[in-house]
Design a protein that fits this description.
The chain is of the alpha/beta class. It contains 11 helices and 9 strands.
């Protein structure tokens, strides 16, 4: 396993696999966010890709969310808005991609990682894939990812995650509330399930899937503006004395 951050792409038999990795529990700094968003956008226009699988490297954590190193380094609102817009761009790239994006979640997700999982069209996970939205405890809130989480799980589940920000919710809870479509006993079983679904989708009519995806995302056309507005809110709050202290304490 490489120990350097990366975003790798592979296309085989119509299945495009996008894998991201960061040695700090697959946290996402700006450059990785930009690469993921750009890669998914490019695959949307690549006829060789019929369906996309989004996954992370390693075996334990799917995604730890925002990079704490970058959060601590934010010193002004413009930089904060730019950083949080990275998550907005990933969510919007998935939303606007004409191909289905399957989420493959092998382990825990925190904050922005839950947002990325929520944005996928069909999400499959293991029994180890607990979720938590820790933003409120860090002095800001899950503003950018909120629309994606609420769209997938509903208002009540989003409230439970957002308000009870220090509590892990189980994969079974996440499945019962719509985040995960399927939960598997092992990573091996997860990979078999993801592969089977991807192969099936790759054999379907691309135009039908494109039209269905548009229907499934109906009502989100304003997200290009909305999520950037939310990024500005987060960028402002992350500069607060409370957030600076909370992020520093958490990182330490």
């Amino acid at each position: 396993m490489e120990n350097q951050p990366y975003v790798h792409t592979n296309i085989e038999n119509g299945i495009a696999t996008v894998e991201f990795f960061h040695p700090k529990h697959n946290s996402l700094p700006s450059d990785l966010l930009a690469k993921i968003a750009g890669t998914i956008t490019d695959l949307g226009g690549n006829d060789a890709a019929k369906v996309i699988v989004l996954k992370s490297g390693g075996s334990r954590t799917f995604c730890a969310g925002a990079s704490f190193d970058e959060l601590i380094a934010i010193k002004d609102e413009v930089t904060g808005k730019t950083f949080f817009s990275g998550f907005a761009n990933v969510i919007n790239s998935i939303r606007k991609c004409p191909k289905f994006v399957i989420g493959r979640v092998q382990g825990k997700s925190v904050g922005g990682g839950v947002g990325v999982a929520s944005a996928t069209d069909y999400c499959m996970a293991t029994k180890f894939a607990a979720v938590k939205l820790s933003e409120l405890a860090l002095g800001f809130g899950p503003f950018v990812i909120g629309p994606a989480v609420e769209r997938k799980m509903g208002k009540a589940a989003f409230v439970q995650l957002a308000v009870n920000s220090k509590k892990w919710q189980t994969p079974d809870w996440a499945k019962a509330n719509g985040l995960y479509n399927e939960v598997f006993e092992s990573t091996e079983a997860l990979d078999e399930g993801v592969q089977a679904l991807a192969e099936e989708l790759a054999s379907f009519n691309p135009e039908a899937m494109k039209m269905l995806k548009k229907v499934l995302w109906d009502g989100t056309e304003h997200w290009d503006e909305l999520l950037v507005e939310r990024a500005a809110q987060s960028g402002q709050l992350v500069l607060s004395e409370f957030a600076v202290a909370a992020i520093g304490k958490f990182k330490a």
